Amino acid sequence: MKKDSITISLCMIVKNEENVLERCLSSVSTIVDEIVIIDTGSTDQTKEMAKKFTNCVYDFNWINDFSAARNFAFSKATKDYIMWLDADDVITEVNAEKLLELKKTLTEEVDAVAMKYHLSFDEDGNPTFSSVRNRIVKRKRNFKWIGFVHEYLEVYGNIIHSDAAVIHHKDKDSSTRNLKIYEEAIASGKSLNPRDKYYYANECLDHGKYETAIEWYNKFLDEGKGWSEDNIQACGKMADCYLNLGDMDLATRSCLKSFTYDGPRGENCCRLGYIYLQQNDYHRAISWYKIATFVDIPEQKSPFINTACYTWLPHLQLCLSYSRLGDQETAKKHNDIAASFAPNNPSVKYNQAYFNSLFNEK
């Protein structure tokens, strides 16, 4: 069954977002039919900014639980579907057009719409790291958010994928908020589930607590109850911890362990290439970077993809490796391939100038 057009409630939780909230709401206000803003304790002009766009602004007593706040926001929605965003997210004009078209074609049989979430970009504005999130859900299904930190929306049923995307523009430095919430939970004796163990380890990595991160990545992996994609990510992130600690051997072992959960991924092949490059073992570095160029991007498997590791990055590193071995012609070929993916990358452009000078002199 299809109506003339479905309606969408935008539900957001915010705190001290006066610098970015207007940008976010302006980008989405022509798409959604209702905006629900839940403020968790702002001390700036966030609520006043929100009230320029909606009368549905509510206070929520913060209890160190993101799911509780998001579920409260969802409870205030009244339209057919619910869309969620964070304050530092933006819907670009191109993606707004795609979402407006989605509203016209979406049928009531659809329970949720998954969309890409672009988190970082290259010099040309192309996404370099993306994930996939269930971004729009049917209100009557009463889907719930799970987890007090790094919460996720538990969705099932008829899920479709849209080619529209949400753009994340991070404007704040990394906060210790999530780390402190986890540490307080652990100190209080709260038992962490596998997903929390993984994300607590991520917070430790992000804040330079490498030994603690390694401890919790191992707890997560040893328990054997994690999602395979998180297992793969954990192996790579644990390798990053060891690299920061200067332990190349254990970094290598961590990367190789990821292959027990699935075939080689470009991210960990590039990590292995980097490990050998740091040790001036160019032949082994080349072997891993070459594998990265042949590995397919696992778009149907993983919601977390660093596209650079499947495109320009391994070729750029192959250029460096061959150059250090004295094979400048092969080095140039790989830089040219890297340029086909990222023509304005500073390292690529520097290499182009170098090779132009080198071969012109010859």
Summarize the helices and strands and which ones pair or pack.
Elements: E1 8-14, H1 21-28, E2 34-39, H2 46-50, E3 57-59, H3 66-75, E4 81-84, E5 89-90, H4 93-105, E6 112-121, E7 127-138, E8 144-146, E9 152-154, E10 159-168, H5 177-187, H6 194-206, H7 210-223, H8 228-244, H9 248-257, H10 266-278, H11 282-294, E11 305-306, H12 312-324, H13 328-341, H14 346-361
Parallel strand pairs: 1-2, 1-4, 2-3, 6-10
Antiparallel strand pairs: 4-7, 5-10, 6-7, 7-11, 8-9
Helix pairs in contact: 5-6, 6-7, 6-8, 7-8, 8-9, 8-10, 9-10, 10-11, 10-12, 11-12, 12-13, 13-14
Protein name: Glycosyl transferase
Pfam family, one: Glycos_transf_2
GO molecular function: transferase activity
Supply database-style keywords.
362 residues, alpha/beta, Spore Coat Polysaccharide Biosynthesis Protein SpsA, Chain A, Serine Threonine Protein Phosphatase 5, Tetratricopeptide repeat, 2 domains, 9-stranded mixed sheet, two-stranded antiparallel sheet, 47% helix, globular
Would you identify the CATH H-level superfamily of the largest domain?
Answer: Tetratricopeptide repeat domain
Q: Give the helix proportion (percent range).
A: 40-55%
Please tell me the overall pLDDT: 95
What CATH first level of the largest domain would be assigned? Mainly Alpha
GO molecular function: transferase activity
Protein name: Glycosyl transferase
Keywords: Transferase
InterPro entries: Glyco_trans_2-like, Nucleotide-diphossugar_trans, TPR-like_helical_dom_sf, TPR_rpt
